[in-house]
Amino acid sequence: MKSITDISIKSKLLLSFGLMTVFTAAVIATAFSGIAALRSTLDLRERDHSAIVNLLQLRSNLNRIRGQMLEMSLLKDRTEQEKLAAATGQHVNEIKQGIAAAAAAGGGEKAVVETSEMRMQWEAYERTLEEEIKLARLGKTAELMAVAQGVQKERYERIRSLALQMADEAEDEMKKSTRLSRESAAAAVRLFLLTGIAALFTGLLTALLLTGNIVGPLAAIAAAAEAISKGEMAVELPSAAREDEVGALAKSFSRMSAYLRAMTEAAEQIGGRDFRTEIKPVSEKDLLGNAFSAMTANLRGMTRDIQNATQVLASSTGQMAASTTETASTVAEIATAVSQTTATVEEVKQTAQLSSQKSRQVSDSSQRAAQVAQDGQKAVEDVRTGMGQIKEQVESIAKNIVRLSEQSQTIGEITSTVGDLAEQSNLLAVNAAIEAAKAGEQGRGFAVVAQEVKTLADQSKNATSQVRGILGEVQKAISAAVMATEQGGRAVEAGVNQSAAAGAAITTLAGSAAEASQAAAQVAASSQQQLAGMDQLAQAMENIKTATGQNATASRQTEASTKDLQQLGQKLRHLAEQYKI
Amino acid sequence: MTEAEKDRETLKKRAEAMAAPEEKPAAGERAEFLEFRLAGERYAVELALVREVCAGRELTRIPGAPPFIAGVANIRGQILPVADLALFFGIRAEAPERRELVILRARAAGPAREAGGAGELAVLADAVLGVSSLAPEEIQPPPPGFTGIYGQYLGGIAARDTIIFLADRFLESTAAGAN
């Protein structure tokens, strides 16, 4: 059979809470049934009470009708009688309703019988009542009284006794139902009490059982965990033969504790300079196991390296000792070389100073050259403008000369015309002389005039021939001038082109001069820096000289130190050999 | 001497000449001559035989005319034959482009008229030089050997190598030739 400790905690909890729920449901059901029973008895009581009231009212109505009949017999006034008859009709209706209500209320067999008898009696009474009203209207008082005191009285008494009897019966019923309800209430209270107590006990029992079964072992595990957290590795848990979650936890805890103990042992071994321990990781996620494994492997590798290194170190220090001795002598040689170099640097420094001065001069003159080149550029620009103006003027001169040539031709034409005129004048003068000769003595004066005219014509001819000669020379000169202006134009054109070429050349020259100036300035700056550098170099050489002296001292110290180092290497090798790998 | 001074001198001489009293020819009647240039020589023709001079113009060559007749010219509506004396005398030389015409007219009662010719003829002159008056003693007879076919037309040599051309004989011969 399965022990309670073998059931899982989940099942235990489900079971306990299920029990509690069942008991609570039972308590609620008990209370509900008790309350329902009480309510049904209360309903019965209410029904009986209303029946009693109904019968009481019925009786009172009957009494009133009887009274009214008597009053009607006494009254003589017709209207009063009618008023009373109407009131009686109303009461009759109320009685009818009361009987119907009683029939509807039902009740026992006896009640049904009584109700039907009452109905019969009432119907008879009602019929007679109608006759009574007729008699009262006719004013037959004596007859009316007889009927009322006779048949109607018997009926009235019968109805009244029936009503009373039925009321008594209803009261009895009421009392009986009251007692019944009280009894059922008491029973319900008892049942409720019993169920409640049972539920309480079950709850307590379950709580105790769960606490004892789960909390105890968990507390033990917690105490063990606390101990481990304080570094205590030799913790033993009571081996619980349980199959639930607590059992699983306890088993895992035991395994963890064992794992930790194994690790601790391994660490202790490593601590004791023994790196031969081989730790196998429990799983792939075993970080500590993996780390330990890697650590031991690394330590083994490292120790091996250290042992090799110490051997190398021992031999190296031996070599170093020899080397340092050599170094000491070399350093002395370096010291003499450095002092020679220092002297050389001083000479170079002076040269650099000279070079710096020269480069500054070059820079200044190249700046002047650049300025001159710019002036030249400006001048060439002016020349170009001037050449342009000259060109325009030469063109203007050429135009004028062409015009002059045309005009001289015109003059030539005019001169030839004048020559013709002179020729004609000459002929006219000769004709005039001929006519004068024909006239004889009378024409002698005329002949003189003709001679004068002829002389003038001759002079004109001479003058025109002179003018023609001069004009020919002028035209020659003009042709020469035209050629000269053409040549001048070409020369000016060439001049413009040459001045453009000169301008381009000077622009290039200006650019070159500016570049040269910049370059010279850079050279000057560079040589200044060089000078500063040489200063620093001289200073540095001085420092080196000092340092070399210090080096010589230091190398001797190094020699001593190397010997110490050799001894230290031996010691280190002994130490490294103590590690087992 | 400048041009102006020269002019002034000329004017002065002219004024003196005009102011001087007219000289009568010492011996014989002075005659007026028209001088003209032809083929580089000066020729003079008696003024009484000259009708007028005029400027040269377009000549119309006449077929069948004697070789020395250069053509005919229209002188103010009158058609006149034009003779080239250079051709006539056989002294052809370079002629100027423009030549002038001397229109000759025979004497009113002379052999030329009698011969029945028109009595008017134009000769070509390289240039008309002017009118001058010559006394008979100023004219020297032609040299003795100067008696060729054309010697009959030459009246002698005057000052400045001026050849006196006997125009009336020429007119006569041409009129005769025409007949």
Molecular structure report:
Chain A folds into 2 domains: 4-213; 342-577, Orthogonal Bundle (Helix Hairpins). Chain A is flat and about 230 Å long. By secondary structure, chain A is mainly alpha-helical. Helices cover 91% and strands 0% of the residues of chain A. By secondary structure, chain B is of the alpha+beta class. Chain B has a single domain (30-178), classed as Beta Barrel (OB fold (Dihydrolipoamide Acetyltransferase, E2P)). Chain B contains 4 helices and 10 strands; from the N terminus they run αβββββαβαββββα. Chain B has helices at 3-19, 85-89, 111-114, 167-178, and strands at residues 31-38, 41-46, 50-55, 69-75, 78-83, 100-105, 120-125, 127-134, 154-158, 162-165. In chain B, the strands form 2 sheets. Chain B has a 5-stranded mixed sheet, with no helix packed on it. In chain B, a hairpin with a 2-residue loop joins β1 (31-38) and β2 (41-46). The radius of gyration of chain B is 18 Å and the shape is globular. The model of chain B has no long low-confidence stretch (mean pLDDT 79).
- Total domain modules of chain B: 1
CATH structural architecture of chain B: Beta Barrel
Radius of gyration of chain B (CA) equals: 18 Å
State mean pLDDT of chain B (0 to 100 scale): 79
Summary, kept brief:
The complex is a heterodimer of chains A (581) and B (179). Chain A is mostly helical and 581 residues long.
What characteristics describe this protein?
heterodimer; A: 581 residues; mainly alpha; Helix Hairpins; 2 domains; 8 helices; 0% strand; B: 179 residues; alpha+beta; OB fold (Dihydrolipoamide Acetyltransferase, E2P); 5-stranded mixed sheet; 4 helices; globular
Helices, strands, pairings?
The complex is a heterodimer of chains A (581) and B (179).
Chain A lengths: L8 H66 L3 H28 L3 H30 L2 H9 L1 H79 L15 H27 L15 H153 L4 H134 L4
Helix pairs in contact in A: 1-2, 1-4, 1-5, 2-3, 3-4, 3-5, 4-5, 5-6, 7-8
Chain B lengths: L2 H17 L11 E8 L2 E6 L3 E6 L13 E7 L2 E6 L1 H5 L10 E6 L5 H4 L5 E6 L1 E8 L19 E5 L3 E4 L1 H12 L1
Parallel strand pairs in B: 2-10, 5-7
Antiparallel strand pairs in B: 1-2, 1-8, 3-6, 4-5, 6-7, 9-10
